Amino acid sequence: MAKEKGFYESSGLDVELIEGGPQSLSPTADLLSGKVDFAITGSGVAIDRMEGKPVVAVAAIMQTSPIVWITLKSSNIRGPLDMAGRNLLIMPPPESAELLTMLAREGIRQEQLTMTPTTYRVDDLIDGKADAYDGYISNEPYLLKQKGVEYNIINPRDYGVNFYSDVLITTERMAEDKQEQVKAFRDATLKGWEYALNNIEETVQLIHQHYSPDKTLDHLRYEAETLKALIMPELVQLGHMNPGRWQYIADSYRELNMTQADSDLDGFLFKPEERTSHQLTIAVSVISVLLLSLMGIAIFKFRSLSTKLVAANHELNELIRTDYLTQVSNRHGFTELAKIVISQSHRQPEPSSFILFDIDFFKSINDEFGHQAGDAALVSFAKILSAHRREHDIVARLGGEEFGLLLCGADEVAASKIANKILTELRELTIQCPTANCRFSITASAGIATLSGTLEAFWHKADKALYKAKESGRDSYFLASALD
């Protein structure tokens, strides 16, 4: 839209857009070879910078990456631990860095994986040529729904890997020698994104007509709404990049042995100078004269800044552990908290229980009413779980339509009563479609297991009980102890 609405032209820029894909080595490689002046890539570009490549991040369009693992329901690959020894179609690192980071964080070593460069064809997943496909949550799920193929989404964010995506990058030379041009390109690009997000239907029609005629209008609308949720324009300024978050991303890559380079990102973020050297000299002189009289204010400002940095760091940690849609813990956050509960349970006589929930026939909700209705169902279910959460209990969205409720100090009988109340309340709930004049209801199935041994052990027991509940007709719960 920046090109079509003339934002580049009015900034004095003549811009040619070059599509990525199989014909390109990688966006970063094309940039460094001089083929292009700017490129769009993922957070893995931090690895390039750490390893000495002269790349500079200009803006981050998406605050959360759309890149996910996609598997077929029939494959029974529901999480990272199921991917060991399987054939994976993947973009070459660092473009796929968040996917590999998720696997590494879950204890899966790269030598346990069989990785093949992606063909960018989701049909290879359908045809059984691969067990897992590196795709975009804004694209391939729509295609699979249209083909009637049931699938699983394994999202890095659910495992605490929440990185930037669609990062606009340029070379260090461009950033230094043509600073005004880089700034103009950045500003025009962000203006184009802002226009697109505020005028989705116009944008969809234009893209369908001039850029992507093979995609249906409905597909492009799905893509636009999904990306808008990842960009979060209502909450975050378009293009915003937090240096602390970039440092966290870089440290994550290094800790997980994705690079041996030092995690120093000095000079990585584009920061155009706003003042001339003459203006800077005047400013320094004025500051010198006023310095003593402003010491009290300076101290206050410093303390204020420190407080803001602490708050920003806390916000970042919460973001990593929280599911962005339902605002309950995500899988990573749940795992961290559950380990504390397990440790405490070994020292206390009271048993604790884990209830694993799965919304029944969730795919049919998305198919019949649209993905926004599916999101409304997830949010509604999370609210019901949270309403039944006691002081020390843990509520989490563990991935897709799967939720967990960890009950501290509750035995199997108490857990059964709580599960029954939740399922009953769910049956009585009517959900309003967000974008249409329709209403629908949902049910869920649940498996209950008493905490014993490791997190993986009781989770596995609850999972087996959950599937027993599904086999028994759904809309019910089953006790893991009945399977022993």
Figure out the total of helices: 18
What's the N-to-C terminus distance?
60 Å
CATH fold-level name of the largest domain: Alpha-Beta Plaits
Strand order of the largest sheet: 5-4-6-3-7
The chain-level structural class is alpha+beta
- Main β-sheet description: 5 strands, mixed
CATH homologous superfamily annotation of the largest domain: Reverse transcriptase/Diguanylate cyclase domain
What does the radius of gyration come to? 25 Å
Number of DSSP E strands: 15
Residue share in β-strands? 15-25%
Report the CATH architecture of the largest domain: 2-Layer Sandwich
Level of helix content? Answer: 40-55%
Provide a short characterization of the protein structure:
By secondary structure, this protein is an alpha+beta fold. The protein has helices at 7-10, 27-32, 45-50, 97-105, 123-126, 140-146, 172-177, 179-198, 200-210, 217-231, 243-255, 277-290, 295-321, 331-345, 362-369, 371-387, 412-427, 455-471; strands at 38-41, 55-62, 67-72, 87-90, 114-117, 132-136, 151-154, 165-171, 353-359, 394-399, 402-407, 431-432, 439-440, 444-450, 477-479.
